[in-house]
Write a structure and sequence with these properties.
mainly alpha; two-stranded antiparallel sheet
């Protein structure tokens, strides 16, 4: 048998429970994800998830209303502190607090699911504990959808905002570049930018309408966004190059022409040295002659002609490539002079070695021996003849060094 004190304790516990449920439902109702889901035009997986969650949420409020009605009845029966309660009143309140007193609205049973003697509608009756359990389960389901949607929006919109801002910056650069040079020639980079803008707008629309669908699989930033950012970086680079080309075209082209002058000078020097080497060295193996300066002058002339009819993006790419190529060609042309001069340098090196070995032999007073004199004369004749047999001269110098070493056993 329930006492008045037990009834009062149960009423107090249920009142606190009711306050907690009310606070939770109000917090859920005010959650940003919930508000966004209610206000957005949803599609795809998000629309399906929120449709199910909304139906569950409506059921939660139905259970909560019936749950409150029971508690209100108990409170009315309890009355004030001085209200006299008999055994019958205590038993009635105990039945409400512990029995199946939460009556949910009657639900019609579809005709196709009814038997001959089955009722046309049914009504679920829950205990207060069962009602709280049902509300808790539904609350967790709805909260998860709202939280997941908010997190998905946050993860999607941050990179999309970045993408959109960079697309606007690229469009501003493109407007500064214009469609082309004087003749307005078309360039694929403008089509690529337009395509990125369309895809960005479509992706943002999809992110707003179906965030859960876009992040399905656990990816915070879909591969599509990552790919568009990479593509946009390439477009921005080309547009920056084009804008630089437009403002600095004449200065940079003059710089290329200065490099071409140096290349021509290196090529002329290489040919002068080539002639000297062929005159002084027998059968030299030399690098092929280069006519890069003439080729590059043709490229400069092409750029000057294209300026009036080509897009600045293409001109920028071509100008940058020409600058890079001309620097590489200049470096190679200067190296080629040294490669062509190498046989003369080797001949001079052998001459110096021969005289150094002779000086050492003279210090030991063996330079004039018949064998060393003959070996020295042979090497000297080869090295000071034109054209010089470089291989033969090198062998003769090595032979003389060996002969000096044999005459001076202590010589290393």
């Amino acid at each position: 048998m329930w006492t008045r004190q037990a009834i009062d304790a149960a009423i107090e516990r249920r009142a606190q429970e009711r306050s907690g449920v009310s606070a939770g439902l109000l917090e859920l109702d005010d959650h940003p994800g919930r508000r966004l889901l209610d206000g957005a035009k949803l599609s795809g997986a998000t629309a399906q998830a929120w449709e199910r969650a909304s139906a569950e949420l409506a059921g939660l409020w139905t259970v909560f209303e019936a749950y409150q009605q029971v508690l209100d009845r108990v409170a009315a029966m309890r009355g004030g502190p001085k209200t006299r309660l008999g055994d019958r009143e205590l038993a009635a309140m105990a039945d409400l607090l512990t029995g199946r007193s939460v009556a949910l609205p009657r639900q019609a049973v579809p005709f196709e699911r009814r038997g001959l003697l089955d009722p046309a509608s049914t009504q679920d009756l829950l205990t207060l504990d069962e009602a709280v359990q049902s509300m808790t389960r539904i609350y967790d389901v709805v909260k998860k959808v709202a939280v997941d949607a908010e997190n998905a929006w946050n993860r999607l919109l941050e990179p999309l905002d970045d993408l959109q801002a960079k697309a606007r910056a690229a469009r501003a650069t493109a407007d500064g570049v214009g469609g082309g040079g004087g003749g307005g020639g078309a360039d694929p980079v403008f089509d690529r930018l337009a395509g990125i803008e369309v895809q960005t707008a479509d992706l943002r629309r999809r992110a707003l309408s179906d965030p859960l669908g876009l992040v399905a699989g656990g990816s915070g930033t879909p591969a599509h966004v990552t790919r568009l950012l990479a593509d946009l970086a390439g477009v921005q680079s080309e547009l920056d190059q084009a804008l630089t080309a437009r403002t600095e075209f004449d200065r940079r082209l003059a710089g290329v022409q200065d490099v071409i002058v140096l290349i021509a000078q290196a090529e002329a020097e290489a040919e002068r040295v080539r002639a000297e080497v062929r005159e002084k060295i027998a059968a030299p193996k030399l690098p092929l002659a280069s006519a890069a300066a003439a080729h590059l002058r043709g490229k400069v002339a092409d750029l000057q002609r294209e300026r009036s009819g080509q897009s600045w993006t293409l001109l920028g790419r071509n100008l940058s490539a020409l600058e890079k190529n001309s620097r590489v060609i200049l470096e190679n042309a200067q190296k080629r002079v040294g490669q062509i001069r190498a046989p003369l340098d080797r001949r001079d090196e052998l001459r110096g070695l021969l005289e150094a070995y002779r000086a050492r032999a003279a210090r030991h007073r063996v330079a004039e021996t018949p064998a060393l004199s003959a070996a020295h004369a042979l090497a000297r004749d080869l090295l000071w003849s034109a054209p010089c047999d470089l291989a033969g001269a090198e062998a003769a110098v090595h032979h003389y060094r060996a002969a000096v070493g044999a005459a001076l056993p202590s010589m290393s």
